[in-house]
Write a structure and sequence with these properties.
Low-confidence stretches: 1-44
Shape: globular
Strand order of the largest sheet: 1-2-3-4-6-8-11
Oligomer: single chain
Strand content: 5-15%
Distance between the termini: 42 Å
Radius of gyration: 20 Å
């Protein structure tokens, strides 16, 4: 059964308190959720559609008439759907897709006129930045399922996801420079996903790149025929569900943490986390299962096998 927009959201990653998984998001959750509720009205609750089955949560951007623009209301609805029951063991992976031929056209330019004022503009970019960083900071992987055009903040959303699967007809662009608004915030995610000179060409010209070029440069992880998009994306999601939730969470958090560090610091961080991973009951279960030539039976808890 589909759930629309702002279903009750809760969770503070409390089970990971004290580990690398809690570098940023423990304290802001309550304020993020309160802000999301205050920014959305009942008439806006269908901007995103959320449904979940067998550990896989699908979030669909559901405003095709406005090219799934990332308006403030769309962003807060998306944020709420991401955060809903985020600590539940039943949630293993999130897929973000869109209704219609446009994945997302980016920010709603009507919200960015002088009439809206500087305070409103600041709020738009603050919430957008929160959503993009949240995607990488939550303990479950997030997959972008793209079937169409992704531009500006829509391209930023794709770049922010852990994995991105796109159809052959999909295109990606940062055309803000052509309307007098350089895509500076999309550049944060895109510049970390593709080589610098590729990012700069996208940003300085606004010209779109094809799905195959996006794959070549690392903006997406896989390009598939349109008729295979659902099956290929679900196959990745199901594969993620086969692994231990806390092990995946630990690995995801560590990946992003060490990528922001120098080489020696990164090895120090990763080495320490490998030792922490081995202390988990699921870490030891996986090793035993391999040695005993059987499938592991995960506890999906942070319970320790040893200190």
């Amino acid at each position: 059964m589909a759930v629309y927009g702002f279903a009750a959201a809760a969770g503070s990653f409390s089970r990971f308190r004290g580990t690398v998984l809690l570098s940023r998001w423990t304290l802001p959750y309550s304020s993020l959720l309160a802000g999301a509720r205050s920014l959305c009205t009942r008439s806006e609750t269908q901007l995103t559609v959320r449904h979940q089955q067998n550990g896989i949560r699908n979030i669909v951007l559901n405003n095709p008439k406005k090219r799934n623009a990332l308006s403030l209301s769309m962003l807060t609805s998306l944020r709420s759907d991401i955060l809903a029951d985020i600590d539940s063991d039943d949630l293993r992976v999130i897929i973000i897709s869109a209704e219609g031929p446009v994945f997302s056209s980016g920010h709603d330019l009507k919200e960015l006129t002088s009439a809206q004022g500087r305070e409103h503009h600041s709020q738009v970019f603050q919430v957008c930045s929160e959503v993009m960083t949240l995607i990488q900071d939550i303990p479950v992987p997030v997959i972008a399922k793209v079937n169409g055009v992704a531009t500006a903040a829509g391209c930023q959303l794709v770049a922010s996801c852990d994995i991105a699967v796109a159809t052959e007809k999909s295109t990606f662009a940062t055309p803000g420079v052509n309307v007098g608004l350089f895509c500076s915030t999309p550049a944060v995610a895109i510049g970390r996903a593709v080589p610098r000179k590729v990012a700069m060409e996208m940003l300085l010209t606004g010209a779109p790149i094809s799905a195959h070029d996006a794959l070549l440069h690392g903006l997406v992880s896989r390009v598939v025929p349109e008729e295979r998009l659902e099956a290929e994306t679900m196959a990745i999601a199901r594969r993620v569900c086969e692994s231990s939730r806390p092990v995946v969470a630990l690995g995801k958090a560590t990946f992003y943490r060490q990528m922001a560090q120098g080489r020696d610091a990164a090895y120090s961080t990763a080495s320490g986390v490998m030792v922490d991973n081995l202390a988990l009951r699921d870490g030891q279960e996986g090793i035993r299962a391999f040695l005993e030539k059987r499938k592991p039976v995960w506890t999906n808890s942070t319970e320790k096998a040893h200190e």
